[in-house]
Amino acid sequence: MGKPFKKELEIIPHTIQEINEIDLSNFTSEYQALLTFPLIAVGSGGSLSACYFAEALHQQTGNIAKAITPLEVQSSINIFRKINVLIISASGKNKDILLAFNSIIAQEPNKVISISTKENSPLKTFSAKTSIAENFAFSLSAGKDGFLASNSLVAFFILLCRAYGNETKNLKLASKKVYLEDINRFSKSIIKETTYIVLYSGWSKPVAIDIESKFSEAALGSVLLSDYRNFGHGRHHWFDKRKDNSVIISLINPDDEQLAEKTLQLLPKDIPVLKLNSKNSGAFSTIDLLIQSFHLVDNIGEKQSIDPGRPGVPNYGSKLYNLSYASLLKKINCLIIKRQLLLHGKFIQYYLAV
């Protein structure tokens, strides 16, 4: 199952060019409707990283946004009425995202836009059945991703960047030669039991989320996340007790470079640190750092004899992915609705069919 991860990395420059050349006039025209309201962005796995990028982009418009998983949709079902929703799913067909879509539509949101890389997906079919939903599918010549989200994720980041008015043809990526040398030096200090502490701020948060996702999904190592200042509120103590098998990955751009450097200068000098650094500011730095992080994943995988693009999936993993649980949510949703009715001074025995 999957594809060699190195091969997927080789295709990324073409994917960037491909998405930059797509006519997005229909998509951006529809997407404008989302910009004047708060936004909930929904996704699973690698797509969740893109949701955090949408969160960051949307909040630049002055409106609040939140990235959540499909299961969080079910536990937050009362927030969707009259709100805008973005759903991101490469395949547009996994059970979690389809169940989330139906649950959201039932709450009568203002607008639901979904993006995928597969034409004629169930998500597109579901969207066509309601006037408040629209699906946009952008097929890639790279084809389906391997086990980890790679080219589809880069495509989503570029699409979202353009949707919020950024001209991504002007994006300049960091020199691969420089950061590959840094990654190679850093990985010499890595062992199988290493714990990775990823420090981020602002625009690098989606990249931190994606590093944790990829390291977990490919079984490359344990990852702890913190922004630079929350790290100062106790999380630094990890190194006092577990320094021998712990390292830092510092995500840096010009917006937070001084804070990052001041933070790192206060730590013991014998802690291995990898600085992934982008010269871009804002949203462009996120895309730049994302691609750099892919090469980190590839390097650590190679060191551990794991191909992140095809790490091997046990039978129970496939069963977990395809788990059906809609019926289990019926009781939960009944309790949520009952609580809402009680809050309004009413009590009605209400049964929700899921």
From TrEMBL:
InterPro entries per the UniProt record, alphabetical: SIS_dom_sf
Entry superkingdom: Bacteria
Biological process according to GO: carbohydrate derivative metabolic process
GO MF annotations, alphabetized: carbohydrate derivative binding
UniProt protein name: SIS domain-containing protein
Annotated organism of origin: Pedobacter aquae
